[in-house]
Design brief:
This protein has 178 residues and is mainly alpha-helical. Helix content is 61%, strand content 2%. β1 and β2 (67-68) form a beta hairpin. α3 packs antiparallel against α4 (45-54), α3 packs parallel to α9 and α7 (98-109) crosses α8. The structure holds fe (ii) ion.
């Protein structure tokens, strides 16, 4: 069973298709937050970073007359549900273990409760880490979705995080970023 790296996940055509909508910068920044927060919570940073990288790939673009329509978005958004399903498919295609793919998908499904009727969720430590990582990078008015980055810089940052994950697990660094 092949364990995909963050970079392999990032480079998957479906990731590339969907991650642009919600912003590559927000995805990468959330992954870096997830790495740090995972250590505080004693959670596997690899799962946390993978979930954080993919957490928003379920977004749909709610534009009306060329402008983002928040009312339309609030009423109809199910990005966590779509994201969990898309992430699961990508991870399985890349050879992730089924148990791990499910754990990551669940963390994506529960990273927000915006689509649920009121009530409180009981989150596992991994699910809490991904939710906090997302919130740590949020800006008012959804501005965190609009920051841009050139592809090479994104790849460099993701490689760095892959290495940090490997180092944190006491494994040999397997990729060089420079
Ligand atoms: Fe997010």
């Amino acid at each position: 069973m092949h364990k995909p790296t963050l970079l392999e996940i990032f480079n998957h055509p479906k990731t590339q298709k969907y991650i642009q909508r919600s912003g590559v910068v927000h995805a990468i920044a959330s992954s870096y937050h997830a790495f740090k927060i995972a250590q505080r919570f004693g959670v596997d940073p690899e799962l946390a970073c993978k979930a954080a990288l993919l957490h928003d790939i379920g977004h749909y673009t709610w534009y009306r007359d060329g402008e983002w329509d928040f009312e339309l978005y609030k009423a109809n958004d199910i990005h966590a549900i779509k994201g969990a399903e898309r992430a699961h498919k990508i991870l399985i295609q890349l050879g992730e273990k089924r148990e791990t793919a499910k754990e990551i998908s669940l963390a994506i499904l529960l990273h927000t409760d915006s689509y649920l009727p009121q009530g409180s969720l009981h989150l596992s430590p991994l699910q809490k880490v991904v939710k906090l990582a997302d919130e740590a990078d949020e800006e008012p008015n959804g501005n965190h979705h609009y920051r841009t980055i050139v592809h090479d810089k994104a790849v460099e940052l993701i490689l760095k995080l892959d290495n940090k994950i490997q180092e944190s697990k006491g494994e040999k660094t397997f990729q060089q970023t420079s």
